[in-house]
Write a structure and sequence with these properties.
2 domains, seven-stranded mixed sheet, single chain, PyrdxlP-dep_Trfase_small, about 15% strand, Selenocysteine lyase/Cysteine desulfurase, Aspartate Aminotransferase, domain 1, Aspartate Aminotransferase, domain 2, PyrdxlP-dep_Trfase, four-stranded antiparallel sheet, alpha/beta
Amino acid sequence: MSFKPLFAKSLGAAPGRLHMAAHSHHLWPDASFAGQVECWDDAARLADRKWDRIMGELWPAAQREVADELGTGDPSAIVFAGNTHDFLVRLWSAAPRRAGGPLRILTTDGEFHSARRQFARWVESGDIVLTALPADPVDTLAERLAAGAGEADLILVSQVLFGSGRAVTGLERLAALSRPEGPWVVIDGYHSFMAAERPLGSLGETCFFLAGGYKYAMSGEGLGLMHCPPGFGPRPPITGWYAEFEDLSLSPGQVGYAADAMRFMGATFDASAIYRFLHVRAMLAEQGLTTARISARVAELKALLLPMLADTVFGEAELLNPPGTVMDARFLAFRHSRAAEWQRRLVEADCITDVRGDVLRVGLGLYHDEDDLERFAALAKALA
């Protein structure tokens, strides 16, 4: 069965393109267009009163969808922002500094660029003390982080590493360390949200979780999301006026905060991503497309593709995340010294993949079928 009709607008906009990067910029389904239009129509129809609908109806609906997807059952613990970097800054401002002075962060050398770059700059400015453990071997990463937690104030680790697609198991060990007074544990779930079933679950009792709509949520930019464990950071120093909406009993001049995840809220925002997200979620529900079913479809496509690539240049590469591992990523990560060259030549053939150093990533999603796999295999053979 092909799900291409759900993506007719995106596929039709560039009919010659072979987009094999669903793990990066996931093509938008037609449902997201309907959401974008509804956002505009609401702004025209309701004007100032659009915020009553956004915050009173759409925001809570989106919170419920995210909590259901995470498996936490706690919509009140969900807050949205324009991107996850916004939350990274707010977490840095709010996390306890148990020894005074700079925040002490423990992380890995396999984190996404927004964290890597920001941490590096904060080290330069003296705002943090950073320890970064090697991400490999991934099987012992959670254990090594727990053993090295020591005096760390904040521990950040990806649930699925963006470079290799390998899942980090044993996060329960870190969750057991996380406390309101420190350390805080932050899970970057960008490659597990809507790619793995209930990726947070009971970990949400003590762990923060960051993700967004750009990848497997198929909703595009502007939908950063964070799960906030209750009791952690009741008064974030970096704060916007939306964070006090539910605390209306204060005298003028006092800085109030909502008791739930809204305490990490910023200020006025573009709500179109929430509209898109809700329309995409409704589309998936209508089609019976759960995360488990989509993952099974992607696993099927990967199983078909790999034998096709065996006698191409990809057969010479190291596959970092073979299928069948815990929490399979939605992409295949091939390591080879020629990865950047292959990516460039594929782009010249109007085939989109992406490269991270010497790793080329091939991402699969609902808008792929067997014909796409055969076309990609033919392009791969031409790379020899």
